[in-house]
Write a structure and sequence with these properties.
Blueprint (H helix, E strand, L loop, with lengths): L19 H12 L2 H22 L5 H4 L4 H11 L1 H19 L11 H49 L4 H16 L3 E7 L2 E8 L6 H13 L16 E7 L4 E6 L13 H14 L4 E2 L7
Antiparallel strand pairs: 1-2, 1-4, 3-4, 3-5
Helix pairs in contact: 2-4, 2-5, 4-5, 4-6, 5-6, 6-7, 6-9, 7-9
Length: about 290
């Protein structure tokens, strides 16, 4: 293994960022800034308003409200709850301003128009909730599948008895894929604990190296930016075996694409077990499991 940090490869395929239409949509929503998502939702409403102008002489006002449900569905599907709620409010206001008497006013004179606007608000809010929930479940399922694929790929590297350097690199890449966050593996080399593999553009400083040494000495995990390692950006977990192998697995959740999971230790334990197996030892419990 090289003394320098190497980017994880280990025979692992890169994450399938766009796995079908849902993958494309989730990737789009992550790439766009929050303001752009809300702006796109308002653009959907503007397009619906233009369509309503085209067909307003063909259908009645109550039926016209259904057109404004379309941008709500699109916003919820592409961007989630917040932008879809903005589309609900903007759609109701657009319908009220342009298509109820008196025109170009937010005042509603006709009881039937008032009922149509209220009905639009209720239907659009319900559709927004359902579409956002559906999107959330689809993203969770896709995320779980990606995590399983990452662990499976690491298992293949271990089973194939690949060189230990490839196993370590594969482990770093697997951790990166699981958490969508920079990852690093520290190992004892020439009597010193050094970072030997990383993935996701991990930036390792002396603070992380000192924290990794402390974690390995105490056999206790440590969270980022907490005492006694306030300068470290990485959550760190020690992995020890009954033989001469020991390492530390680190994840930088401050640069993750997602929020820090409630129980990251369950994945770290699995990766640690694979590393211990590859290096010929049965893993010991490393102090308390991380929060």
């Amino acid at each position: 293994m090289s003394d320098s940090i190497v980017e994880g490869r280990g025979g692992l395929r890169e994450p399938d960022r766009a796995n079908g239409p849902q993958g494309d949509r989730s990737e789009l929503s992550r790439q766009l800034p929050l303001a752009a998502r809300y702006g796109a939702s308002l653009l959907f409403v503007a397009l619906a308003t233009g369509l309503a102008f085209i067909v307003e002489n063909l259908i009645s006002a109550p039926n016209l409200t259904l057109i404004f449900v379309l941008p709500v569905v699109a916003a919820a599907t592409f961007f989630g709850w917040g932008p879809s709620l903005a589309a609900v409010v903007a759609g109701v206001l657009a319908f009220d301003f342009f298509f109820t008497q008196p025109f170009f006013s937010f005042r509603i004179a006709s009881p039937s128009d008032l009922w149509a606007a209220a009905l639009l608000l209720v239907i659009a809010a319900a559709v927004s909730t359902l579409a956002a929930e559906s999107r959330s479940r689809a993203l969770q399922a896709r995320r779980a599948a990606e995590q399983a694929q990452a662990l499976q790929a690491l298992a293949h590297v271990v089973i194939q008895a690949r060189p230990q350097s490839e196993v370590v690199e594969a482990a770093a890449t697997a951790v990166n894929r699981i958490f969508r966050a920079p990852s690093v593996i520290f190992m004892q080399k020439a009597g010193a604990l050094r970072p030997v593999a990383s993935a996701g553009g991990a930036r390792i400083t002396s603070a992380e190296e000192d924290a990794a040494k402390g974690v390995l000495e105490t056999r206790l995990p440590a969270r980022a930016e907490t005492y006694p390692f306030e300068q470290s950006q990485f959550d760190l977990w020690p992995v020890a075996t009954s033989k001469d192998f020991s390492c530390v697995i680190g994840v930088d959740f401050t640069r993750s694409e997602h929020e820090r999971p409630d129980a990251p230790v369950r994945f770290v334990e699995i990766v640690g077990a694979y590393l211990a197996t590859a290096f010929g030892g049965s893993r010991k419990p490393a102090g308390a499991t991380a929060s």
